[in-house]
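can u do me a favor
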């Protein structure tokens, strides 16, 4: 089921929820320079938009999860403030936002 949070429309991932977590966990690219040697101005603007989205959701540990010469995708996690356990993973693509709830 899709939901709207802070003005952003998110698509829920129902199958392979752990795959979003795996994509985020395997990425070591925590900054745009880790993925691109000389990113374009458009990529910088997109990266800063990803940071704004992450902050709007109260997320942390934004990472580039996939990239090619034209576009990139990123993901971040939302953790439980008391336990530190990962509750949700949010993936940002050029056209959509996806989320997977990992805990009940």
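np, heres the sequence
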């Amino acid at each position: 089921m899709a939901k709207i949070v802070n003005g952003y429309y998110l698509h829920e991932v129902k199958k392979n929820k752990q795959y979003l977590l795996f994509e985020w966990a395997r990425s070591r690219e925590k900054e745009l320079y880790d993925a691109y040697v000389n990113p374009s101005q458009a990529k910088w603007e997109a990266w800063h938009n990803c940071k704004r989205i992450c902050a709007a959701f109260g997320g942390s540990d934004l990472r580039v999860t996939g990239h090619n010469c034209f576009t990139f995708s990123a993901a971040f996690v939302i953790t439980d403030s008391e336990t530190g356990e990962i509750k949700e993973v949010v993936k940002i693509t050029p056209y959509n936002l996806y989320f997977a709830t990992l805990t009940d």
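The radius of gyration is 13 Å. hope that helps!!
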